[in-house]
């Protein structure tokens, strides 16, 4: 038995980590010259999204022996709509993670913990590998390969434009903006590296890349952002689901497997857990789809919530933020173990606010 892993991102390295524990040999093929995105940035995961799991760092350490070190805790969330704002405070609301080629990035942390062979600058085709290896794990981060097999169904097709910016920031504060004038049904967010530098990103659905600059300028002008741009990057952001995550001896994980939660587009937790489960399915010769079903169900619930949000105009978004700012709702959402995403998705589904 020998496994080919396509992609040295979080999902692929999680598979490699677990295969090491099983003593199953593998080769990781990465088309780029390094693990992680070319432009360093700060990603986030929110505790409210991953319930009933409260702390993903403790979860991966206790359940899988995988030690991960986040950049910082999130202790404050500021949500801004055109006319309202909501502030959430807490000792732990989630984590910030360094991404890209930075020394302590999530990718480099995981890369340092694997023992097998990693071949950089090695683009490969799963059709070629499936006859050379017992199993092929597709962890390329995008649905391009799944799409070529006709098993990917698109839910969200948009663009992300982001900048690393300088200014004055609270290192533990996540800032989010929702405004259809510049984000349509997407959002903008700011995640700090430290008190002087941060990542600022805008996610916009159903536009072409050459339209990004217009919406980017509207964001800066309307919000009167006081930051200075250091460098800018753009990424095509496609979210969807797969009809199956296993085709014979080919397994699709992380973003390549449609395992990005559609509400806010977070993917760290699902990428890691799907990579670990791919290794388990290979080791035990069991159905990868069955192992993934709880995650696939959580993604569907998140998509129902996203579908409901997509129908809101700015007046409605103002009302949502005002509701979140209301003390009892704020407490219920962020300071109890209630699975808010699951409950809201059920309410929206019964109300017919689905795709």
From TrEMBL:
Pfam families the record matches: NAD_binding_8
InterPro entries in alphabetical order: FAD/NAD-bd_sf (IPR036188), Geranylgeranyl_reductase (IPR050407)
Entries under PANTHER family matching the protein: CONDITIONED MEDIUM FACTOR RECEPTOR 1, GERANYLGERANYL DIPHOSPHATE REDUCTASE
Name this protein carries in UniProt: Dehydrogenase
Source organism of this protein record: Carboxydothermus pertinax
């Amino acid at each position: 038995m020998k496994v080919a892993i396509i992609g040295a991102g979080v999902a692929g390295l999680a598979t490699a980590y677990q295969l090491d524990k099983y003593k199953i040999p593998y080769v990781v093929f990465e088309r780029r010259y390094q693990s992680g995105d070319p432009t360093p940035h700060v990603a986030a995961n929110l505790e409210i999204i991953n319930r009933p799991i409260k702390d993903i760092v403790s979860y991966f350490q206790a359940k899988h022996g995988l030690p991960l070190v986040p950049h910082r805790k999130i202790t404050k969330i500021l949500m801004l709509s055109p006319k309202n704002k909501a502030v959430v405070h807490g000792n732990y609301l989630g984590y910030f993670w360094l991404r890209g080629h930075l020394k302590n990035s999530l990718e480099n942390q995981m890369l340092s913990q694997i023992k097998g062979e990693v071949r950089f600058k090695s683009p490969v085709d799963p059709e070629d590998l499936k006859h050379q290896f017992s199993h092929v794990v597709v962890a390329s981060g995008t649905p391009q390969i799944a799409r070529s097999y006709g098993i990917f169904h698109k839910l969200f097709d948009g663009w992300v434009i982001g900048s690393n910016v300088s200014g004055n920031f609270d290192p533990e504060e996540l800032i989010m903006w929702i405004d259809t004038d510049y984000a349509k049904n997407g959002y903008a967010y700011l995640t700090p590296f430290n008190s002087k530098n941060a990542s600022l990103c805008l996610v916009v659905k159903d536009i072409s890349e050459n339209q990004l600059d217009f919406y980017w300028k509207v964001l800066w002008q309307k919000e009167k952002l006081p930051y200075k741009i250091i460098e800018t990057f753009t990424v095509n952001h496609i979210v969807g689901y797969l009809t199956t995550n296993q085709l014979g001896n080919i397994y699709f994980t992380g973003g390549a497997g449609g395992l990005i939660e559609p509400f806010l587009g977070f993917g760290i937790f699902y990428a890691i857990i799907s990579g670990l489960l791919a290794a388990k399915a290979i080791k035990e010769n069991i159905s990868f789809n069955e192992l993934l079903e709880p995650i696939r169900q959580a993604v569907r619930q998140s998509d129902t919530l996203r579908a409901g949000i997509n129908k809101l105009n700015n007046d409605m978004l103002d009302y949502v933020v005002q509701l979140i700012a209301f003390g009892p709702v704020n407490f219920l959402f962020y300071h109890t173990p209630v699975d808010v995403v699951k409950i809201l998705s059920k309410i929206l589904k019964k109300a017919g606010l689905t795709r």
